[in-house]
């Protein structure tokens, strides 16, 4: 028989053990949800992180991400400033994005402000995210108002990647995060892939696939702070301990600096029938191959010919048939007037290419112009020329799309530079035209090659170049065609 005192002691010790267990669980719970984790919405503290913005290895700007906290709301302010020389002209760019979140769970986005200042473009916008998202915008002094669907976006969504990596010593190979698209005010899903996360390393490397299929890379410290964000176009944001000082007088031309050198001059682009190139310091897999480019993997070369065209796939035709386009009324009127009494689609394309070439005045405009801005200013570079042509082709019931790539800049530069042109759908074929150069047959130096660099090469800042392997000219004399 158990003595009463012994039974009492057993129950007492059991009771104490239960109390300790409960206290331990409570402590772990508080530890999980409190100040141990920097990026928790409930406890995140004000901070300001500076970044240096580089473009192809030269400093072109500074950026910051700042968090402010009041009794009513938590504000995140992104501020980017860039300065550089493009084709001999100096430009300034500023982008400010302010997102205000509730200071109470679930820390919902409640309002914000957006500011864009680019050459010939100034946009100020504010929004309130309630039962509907009410957007008010001033674009170059012109006032717009919109009512959009409310967005379900929280402070925890904004800091999700940082919070996830801070909490997860061994992150998954792939994961997703929600991002806010401030152009259309919709929440989009972004895919992340873990490229490198060795236990002894102080940071991890992530590849981010954006909703528009573009790819970028991040280096993120184990505590969730972003150290580096690199883009395939050569832009990168590098974390800095202080505000970066710029020296624009020491910059190279940003456009030319981003080009791709070729080892020999090609001559006049409009006289070249075909050209074969190989890559120096690179691999063909860096290209997202385009149907207009002939790829020889055995010789590691690409070949291009004058007059790019190829058959559209059934999937493309089905997708085009389902698209509903809202056209700019001015562009529509201009297109219909320019193609009056023309009943052949190819002739309409030729007419509109010539119209856009004559209608716009060429100026380097590294700005986010929309169709209204283009029609109002009547200036632009290859991007604006292509946007206007696509809009006018749509008015003529001819589907078209933008092509990004490279084009030969001439023997004085001996390099390829970034360029934009158009593919129009005519009789089931995509036909490439260039309104900037008034071409209804693109040259063989138009390379439709949006780059998709391997992350390991990108981290090494490897610069590549073209090597000219073979070139053929349009001249009848075969001696003018040559293999190099």
From TrEMBL:
Pfam families: Transglut_core (PF01841)
Coiled coil segments of this chain: none
Extent of the signal sequence: none
InterPro entries noted in UniProt: Papain-like_cys_pep_sf, Transglutaminase-like
Top-level taxon: Bacteria
Protein name, UniProt field: Transglutaminase
UniProt source species: Kangiella profundi
């Amino acid at each position: 028989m158990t003595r009463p005192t012994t039974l009492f002691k057993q129950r007492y010790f059991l009771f104490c053990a239960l109390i300790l267990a409960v206290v331990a669980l409570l402590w772990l719970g508080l530890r999980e949800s409190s100040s141990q984790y920097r990026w928790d919405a409930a406890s995140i503290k004000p901070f300001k992180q500076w970044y240096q913005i580089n473009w192809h290895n030269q400093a072109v700007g500074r950026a910051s991400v700042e968090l402010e906290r009041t009794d009513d709301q938590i504000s995140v302010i992104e501020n980017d400033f860039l300065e550089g020389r493009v084709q001999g002209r100096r430009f300034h760019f500023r982008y400010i994005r302010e997102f205000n979140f509730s200071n109470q769970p679930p820390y919902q986005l409640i309002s914000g402000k957006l500011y864009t200042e680019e050459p010939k473009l100034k946009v100020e916008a504010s929004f309130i995210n309630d039962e509907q998202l009410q957007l008010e915008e001033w674009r170059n002094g012109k006032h717009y108002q919109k009512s959009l669907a409310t967005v379900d976006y929280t402070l925890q969504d904004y800091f999700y990647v940082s919070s996830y990596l801070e909490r997860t010593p061994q992150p998954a190979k792939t994961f997703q995060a929600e991002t806010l698209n401030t152009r259309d005010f919709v929440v989009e899903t972004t895919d992340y892939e873990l490229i490198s996360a060795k236990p002894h390393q102080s940071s991890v490397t992530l590849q981010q696939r954006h909703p528009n299929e573009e790819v970028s890379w991040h280096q993120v410290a184990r505590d969730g702070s972003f150290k580096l964000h690199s883009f395939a176009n050569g832009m990168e944001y590098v974390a800095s301990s202080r505000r970066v000082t710029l020296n624009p007088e020491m910059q190279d031309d940003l456009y030319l600096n981003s080009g791709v050198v070729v080892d020999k001059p090609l001559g006049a682009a409009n006289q070249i029938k075909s050209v074969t190139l190989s890559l120096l310091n690179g691999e063909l897999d860096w290209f997202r191959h385009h149907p207009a480019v002939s790829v020889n993997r055995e010789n590691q070369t690409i070949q291009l010919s004058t007059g790019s065209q190829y058959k559209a796939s059934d999937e493309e035709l089905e997708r085009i048939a389902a698209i509903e386009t809202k056209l700019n009324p001015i562009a529509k009127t201009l297109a219909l007037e320019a193609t009056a009494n023309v009943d052949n689609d190819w002739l309409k394309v030729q007419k509109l290419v010539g119209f856009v070439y004559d209608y716009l005045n060429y100026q380097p405009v590294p700005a986010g112009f929309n169709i209204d801005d283009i029609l109002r200013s009547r200036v632009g570079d290859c991007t604006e020329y292509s946007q206007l042509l696509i809009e006018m082709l749509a008015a003529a019931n001819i589907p078209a799309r933008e092509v990004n790539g490279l084009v030969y800049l001439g023997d004085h530069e001996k390099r390829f530079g970034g360029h934009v042109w158009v593919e129009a759908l005519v009789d089931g074929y995509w036909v490439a035209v260039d309104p900037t150069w008034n071409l209804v047959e693109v040259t063989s130096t138009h390379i439709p090659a949006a780059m998709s660099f391997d992350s390991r090469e990108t981290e090494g800042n490897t610069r590549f170049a073209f090597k000219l392997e073979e070139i053929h000219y349009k001249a009848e004399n075969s001696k003018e065609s040559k293999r190099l």
